[in-house]
Structure formats: C-alpha cells, structure tokens
Amino acid sequence: MEAGLVQRGKERVGHVHKVGYVRRVIAKKRKQVYRRVRRPELSVSKTLQQLFDSCRETFKGPGTVPSPQDVQTLRHILDNMKPEDVGLSRDLPFFKPGNIVKENQRVTYATVYKCDNFSLCIFFIPEGGVIPLHNHPGMTVLSKLLLGLMHIKSYDWVDPEASDNLLQQPSKLKLAKLKTDKVFTAPCDASVLYPTTGGNIHEFTAMTPCAVLDVIGPPYSKEDGRDCSYYRDHPFASFPNERIGDVKEENDSYAWLEEIEMPENSEMDGIEYLGPPVY
Questions:
Q1: Buried-state track 80-117, b at ≥16 Cβ within 10 A, e below 16
Q2: Which residues, 6 or more positions from 159, have their beta carbon under 8 angstroms from its beta carbon?
Q3: How far apart are CA 129 and CA 145, in angstroms?
Q4: Digit-coded pLDDT (tens) for 11-46
Q5: Quick check: 200 pLDDT over 90?
Q6: CB atoms < 10 A from the CB of 3, how many?
Q7: Whole-structure pTM over 0.85, yes or no?
C-alpha cells in the first residue's frame, strides 16, 4: 500500500475539494488542541521520533530484509503508538461514522517522511473505502491501524517462481495461500509482511473511517523494479487441477489470484502532513 499506490495518486493532488476536506479537518483539530493544552500539538512526538530513528537503523536499502530483532523493535514501537503521535484524534469529524462527505470517498494519504530506504505514510480510508488487493515486491511493510474498524484480507504466493502456468490458464493467474481474513479494531498490534511471507498481497476495506500508519522499506519504485501490481482473487475450486488439488486438503485456504489493471476509482489523493515533525 503504498508508495506505488501513492505515486499514481500524486497525479490527483490537484483535486483540492477532495484533499482539502481532510486537510481542513486536521487543521481544525490542531487549533482546538492548541487551545486546550499548554504545548502545541506540533511539538515532537517522542514515540514517532523513536520510530523514525529505528527505521534509519533498520532499513539498509533495496535488496535487504530487516533482521527479526530489528522488526521486533519496530513492532514494539508501533504497538505503543497512539493517534496523537501523528497529530490525529478520534474526535475529528473525519473519523465519525456517517459523517463523511459523500463526494470524498477517495482514499487519501499523508507522507510523514520518505527516502530511498524507507517511508512513513498515513492512509485515510473513508467508511466503505477500499485499498484493493495489491503486492509489495521486495518490500517489508509494517502497518499500524491507528483509528477505525478495518477488514484485512491477505495472501502469499504458494510458490512465487513455480505457481505460474500450473493450469492451462493465462500466465496472470497464480496460486496463493490465504494468510489473513478478519476484521481489526483499533487499537491493535501492528502487522508485518515480508517480500515472500506474512501476507505480502493484501486488501484493506474500511468498515468505519480509518487511519493506518505504514512503515515501508524500501518504498515502491518503478525504476528499480518495485512497481505495484493489482489482483482479483478467485475461489480455489474455480480452476480445479489434479496436480495440485490432491494435496490441498483445505481448499478454502487457497485462491487463484489474477493480475489486473489498476481498478477504477482507486487513485489516491495526497494531503499535507500536519502532525509532529521528525528530525
């Protein structure tokens, strides 16, 4: 989710009537908080700064995967993060179910920080909004649901190399194993996916307005071969195949993923990040 989707979404930043809604909401809340507390909300968040510093130590660039110890450190920090650490609050109008401007159904994002090795990005998904099934080639991604109720479905390839053409079907069809299919409620622990495990191909559906903080390393880069691909899942039984069907006892745990073009209305709008800075 994320920078590949984000890069395509940059073309839509000019849609001020969509972007500005969230921006105004965040700005309005920031002014309210400034009046209610002695220190402005833009003061440095210790937890966010700790996350940023750990990311700089953890992500070494394309072609590398963080060590289990480093991932655990990042997960621990994310598990303790609160919406206020990035300038958000559940009291913002955006996060109130049923209080969404109908024309603003596009997913928006705010980039906290981005470099060649990693990025920190917040995704705002309106009620009923979907970030469609997509992959993260060569990437490690940690996701923290900060606010809202969200359904997550994710898959891993059964065999990234051999799952092509197991059937006499188009080469865009691949066998995948279901990793996650459940609803998450904030606050909850952070999740992590790796280049070939952990649910690298996932889909987010917002049951209520949601905010998700993603730590992505390295970010999407079409030039470096890390472009974002989109998929449609089909039940395993839709394409029976004796060579593999007889070894799959739990067919509900498998599906065929068909690579598709970027779905309509899935572009994202970029908004300015107005939360605490990182240094």
A1: ebebbbbbbbeebebbeeeebeeebebbbbbbbbeeeb
A2: 175
A3: 15
A4: 333 333 333 334 444 444 444 433 333 434 467 899
A5: yes
A6: 25
A7: no
